[in-house]
C-alpha cells in the first residue's frame, strides 16, 4: 500500500473508514483509531500499529 493511500476492503471493494475500536488484553483495555470497512465491519490493523502500540501494551501488561 502506498503511503497516504486509503486501503480498500478485499471483500466489499470499498474504501475503509476511520473507526474508534476497543482492544482488550489480559483483562485490560485500550482504544485506538483504526480503519474499518463500512459494509462488512472488517478491521484493518497496519503492521506499524501491531508492532508498535499493541506490542507496547502487551509487554507492559506481561511484565506486571
Care to give the gist of this entry?
With 64 residues, the chain is an alpha+beta fold. The chain has one domain.
Structure, described:
The protein has a 3-stranded antiparallel beta sheet. A hairpin with a 6-residue loop joins strand 2 and strand 3 (43-44). The protein has one helix at 47-62; strands at 17-25, 28-36, 43-44. The mean pLDDT is 84. The protein is an alpha+beta fold and 64 residues long. Helix content is 25%, strand content 31%.
Instruction: Label the structural class.
Output: alpha+beta
Number of DSSP helices? Answer: 1
Shape summary: elongated
Strand elements, count: 3
- Give the fraction of residues assigned to helices: 25-40%
Largest β sheet strand count, sense and barrel closure: 3 strands, antiparallel
Radius of gyration: 14 Å
Tally of separate domains? 1
Strand-helix topology:
Elements: E1 17-25, E2 28-36, E3 43-44, H1 47-62
Antiparallel strand pairs: 1-2, 2-3
Task: Write out key terms for the chains shown.
single chain, 64 residues, three-stranded antiparallel β-sheet, 1 helix, elongated
Amino acid at each position: 500500500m502506498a503511503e497516504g493511500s486509503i486501503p480498500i476492503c478485499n471483500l466489499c471493494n470499498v474504501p475503509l473508514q476511520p473507526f474508534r475500536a476497543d482492544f482488550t488484553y489480559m483483562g485490560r483495555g485500550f482504544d485506538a483509531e483504526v480503519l474499518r470497512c463500512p459494509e462488512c465491519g472488517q478491521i484493518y490493523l497496519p503492521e506499524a500499529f501491531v508492532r508498535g502500540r499493541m506490542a507496547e501494551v502487551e509487554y507492559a501488561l506481561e511484565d506486571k
